[in-house]
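Pipeline run #58 for the internal structure catalog. This entry was flagged by the ingest filter as a single-chain record with no existing model, so it goes straight to prediction. Upstream metadata was stripped on purpose; only the residue string is passed forward. Reviewer on rotation: M.T. Logging verbosity set to normal.
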Amino acid sequence: MKFLVLLAGCGLGDGSCVEEVILTYIALDKYECDYTPVAEDISVPSVDHFTESFAENRRVLREAARIGRGRIQDIRNIDFGEYDALIIPGGIGLLNNYKDSATVKACVTHFAGSEKPIATMCAGIDFLRGFLGSDLLACETQELTADQYCHDIVNNVYYTPAFRKTGSCYEALFGIDAMIHALA
């Protein structure tokens, strides 16, 4: 399978959660999956992660390149039809940076409309609920622990809480790994 990994920058407060991205890469590499990280080249306010206050504007694509492993692509240059599944690591940047993005909306609606799997974690479920309805996995997510995942068969959406339910990278790895294994 060929996976598209949607990044929203670099850093929990204004981009993608770095730990969730790296744990996703580990699982994808473990199962020998082909993947392409993507982000949109837009300018957004950044967050100083030391003081947690707003800082200068930064380009999402450039920030995502920090964790793009040399594979990062501009989402505007991607043919979504070439990919079998979409993975969305968490991070508040998803909600803030992409709330008005027609390109990201086209990406998500392509995968949802084609009934291709979409896998997400942490704040990614809130992001997807903006597209697929506020009740998406609402009951299932309450009982999950960080080392588990669930699957909405109707929407073909996979979810693991990751850092929403733990502060441990090791514990979050189990949920992310299990979810990626189910997709691979």
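catalog note: The mean pLDDT is 93.
catalog note: Residues 150 and 168 are 20 Å apart (CA to CA).
status: ready for reviewer M.T.
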